[in-house]
UniProtKB/TrEMBL annotation:
A biological process term (GO) from this entry: alkaloid metabolic process
All residue ranges annotated as the Methyltransferase type domain in the record: 151-202
Organism: Anisodus tanguticus
Descriptive protein name: Methyltransferase type 11 domain-containing protein
Gene Ontology molecular functions: S-adenosylmethionine-dependent methyltransferase activity
């Protein structure tokens, strides 16, 4: 099925849609011709222990049923129905992330920014070939100046990405991986839409919407969360060995901080000098030289 954009798209008409009639919207400031976007075939072959995509397969499940649960069980689209024009991490984290993007992403790249928002962390001085954004609130995405197109979709309801195989040179996921209830399937889809040698960069800190994060993330430490994301990559056949990047506040012991300490920091009973920076990076099939 070929998807197209209505030429007179207007913010008031942006709606949540299911995967069979998902709409891609051009950013209001960048109206241009819509590239061909094709819905891929479903990759679930009926075997829960071997879920195949058109370009790879999930070798094993990482999370238990309990590990995927959230305190707030309402659909995520309801939680994000109203825009949250806030900055989720501090300036030092953003600087570390932008420098990582500056190192890994080239101007000719086509980029998919998953679970994005109104803020871009891409280096301002670099113009990329195409940046497609995804999120749960159209108003937030419409304010992101770096997006050429965007679409609204709940990845906890439907993990398929409506793009052809090998569509992107890079996929990004910033401070949002903690909300994925089916990360194995999402990572398999990312693998499918990446070009060979394409990079997937997953970054996060210790901040979160506590009631919407999965149990396996809430109950873990900084070190444990890094290992969890590493396992997400390892469970999909074809990703290279993950590279882990840590930038911790000097003197802070955040790697093994207890979940209780993290909760106290979130509600203001404890403070940290700055947000810890974690990133896990892997490539489809091989790392380009």
């Amino acid at each position: 099925m070929l998807l197209t954009i209505a030429p007179n798209s207007h913010p008031k008409t942006w709606q949540y849609t299911n995967s069979t009639n998902l709409q891609f919207f051009p950013h209001p400031s960048k109206i241009k011709t819509q590239p061909s976007i094709i819905i891929p075939k479903a990759y679930d072959n009926g075997d829960n222990n071997s879920i195949e995509s058109t370009a790879g397969k999930i070798k094993r499940k990482v999370l238990s049923k309990e590990g995927r649960t959230k305190f707030n069980i309402l659909p995520d689209r309801e939680f994000y129905a109203y825009p949250k024009f806030v900055t989720h991490v501090d300036d030092r984290f953003i600087s570390n992330l932008t420098n990582l993007y500056r190192k890994c992403l080239r101007p000719e790249f086509e980029i998919l920014d998953l679970m994005s928002s109104w803020v871009s962390h891409l280096p301002q001085e670099v113009k990329y070939k195409r940046v497609v954004g995804h999120g749960l609130n159209a108003q937030e995405l419409a304010k992101n100046p770096r997006l050429d197109y965007f679409f609204v979709k709940d990845l906890n309801k439907d993990q398929k990405l409506e793009f052809e195989n090998c569509s992107f040179d890079a996929v990004l996921c910033t401070v949002s991986v903690q909300y994925l209830q089916q990360p194995e399937k999402v990572f398999a889809e990312v693998f499918r839409v990446l070009k060979p040698g394409g990079v997937f960069i997953v970054s996060f800190s210790n901040r979160l919407f506590y009631e919407k994060a999965i149990s396996a993330w809430r109950d873990s430490t900084g070190y444990g969360r890094v290992q969890l994301v590493v396992q997400y990559f390892q469970c999909v056949e074809g990703f290279t060995q993950s590279e882990v990047i840590r930038r911790l506040p000097s003197g802070a012991d955040l790697e093994n901080k207890s979940p209780l300490s993290s909760i106290m920091q979130l509600i203001g009973l404890l403070s940290a000098s700055s947000d810890p920076f974690y990133a896990v990076v892997a490539y489809r099939n091989f790392k380009p030289v």
